[in-house]
Write a structure and sequence with these properties.
mainly alpha
Length: 85
């Protein structure tokens, strides 16, 4: 997995969310630089765990859907008889 890189728009939104969280939940003000630093830290140190969980969830969903599709194919099969001539 390569490093997580956000667009400038995404980074701006995430930094604002961090600042908002600190203000609402901790009654603390955090500057943009500190919020960006915190975002980079979490992206680097914790991001891979979220990424891997997303992959696991996607893999499970695909496997479940593949089983459902296979079952649907079996249900769609027509009954056939072998007739000797």
């Amino acid at each position: 997995m390569s490093d997580i890189e956000f667009t400038s728009e995404e980074k701006e939104i995430l930094v604002h969310k961090i600042q908002s969280y600190f203000h609402k939940e901790l009654s603390e003000e955090i500057g943009q630089f500190d919020a960006e630093f915190l975002l980079d830290f979490f992206s680097k140190e914790i991001g891979a765990y979220h990424y891997n969980r997303g992959l696991q969830d996607a893999r499970t969903l695909i496997e479940e859907n593949a089983q459902n599709i296979t079952q649907t194919f079996y249900e769609m099969e027509k009954v056939t008889e072998f007739v000797k001539s």
